From TrEMBL:
This is Uncharacterized protein. The keyword Membrane applies. It comes from the Eukaryota. It comes from Rehmannia glutinosa. InterPro entries: Aquaporin-like, Aquaporin_transptr, MIP. Residues 1-46 are annotated as: Disordered. PANTHER family: AQUAPORIN OR AQUAGLYCEROPORIN RELATED. Gene3D superfamilies: Glycerol uptake facilitator protein. SUPFAM superfamilies: Aquaporin-like. It is a multi-pass membrane protein. Keywords: Membrane, Transmembrane, Transmembrane helix, Transport.
Length: 254
């Protein structure tokens, strides 16, 4: 059956209209998506916020960081020593000013020292024989192995935190009841399974510092730099990956 001129002309008109309706050129990244947002991007934090120093919420948050790291060290040091098989962690996921970030770091380090000290007080003999739960590169592994394990472990944890607390994901999947602590806790559990045999699992410089200070043996300090450099690199890579690749922040249209 042959097609008449009218039918061919109509088909060409349909193609022309479709080409005009759906442009072949699409912007890169998030800008390609609809600009109608049902969520709000958090504002960038200020570098310094002197007003925070007079706010009770600032010190409440610091005390919470202290207690969270205290309990984290208490549980993880016992875990590494083989006395306990459980694990727990409390994480803070938000954008911070430099003032608040530095305050949190100090409080976490103090909490880590106190938590490791309590474990040592329970049984000094066992504490010494088990290495105090201090992070060291295990025999049979190189420093490069330990550094890579800390980078990857921290990357997994920080990327999970970013994903679980992402405002856009929460708005998009609001019909799915997901509690952020569940995937974060599961990530901590998996990272511990993978890296305890290699480094004892640091993934948090405060955790490594507290255990090293209380144990205070030379071999606990030999590889200590790994447990600062590794987590900082892993966290930076996770933040870069989430912001540039997943969220495509640099490509957003203004």
């Amino acid at each position: 059956m042959s097609r008449g001129p009218t039918h061919v002309k109509a088909s060409r008109e349909d193609v022309r209209l479709g080409a005009n309706k759906f442009s072949e050129r699409q912007p890169i990244g998030t800008a390609a998506q609809s600009q109608d947002k049902d969520y709000k991007e958090p504002p960038p934090p200020p570098l310094f916020e002197p007003g925070e120093l007079t706010s009770w919420s600032f010190y409440r948050a610091g005390i919470a960081e202290f207690m969270a790291t205290f309990l984290f060290l208490y549980v993880t040091v016992l875990t590494v020593m083989g006395v306990s098989k459980s694990d727990s962690k409390c994480s803070t996921a938000r954008k911070l000013s430099l003032t608040r970030a530095l305050f949190y770091m100090v409080m976490q380090c103090l909490g880590a020292i106190c938590g490791a000290g309590v474990v040592k007080g329970f049984g000094k003999a066992l504490y010494q024989t088990k290495g105090g739960g201090a992070n060291v590169v295990a025999p049979g592994y190189t420093k490069g192995d330990g550094l890579a394990a800390e980078i990857m472990g921290t990357f997994v944890l920080v990327y999970t935190v970013f994903s679980a607390t992402d405002a856009k994901r929460s708005a998009r999947d609001s019909h799915v009841p997901i509690l952020a602590p569940l995937p974060i806790g599961f990530a901590v559990f998996l990272v511990h399974l993978a890296t305890i045999p290699i480094t004892g699992t640091g993934i948090n410089p405060a955790r490594s510092l507290g255990a090293a200070i209380i144990y205070n043996k030379s071999h606990a300090w030999d590889d200590h730099w790994i447990f600062w450099v590794g987590p900082f690199i892993g966290a930076a890579l996770a933040a870069l990956y989430h912001q540039v690749v997943i969220r495509a922040i640099p490509f957003k249209s203004t």
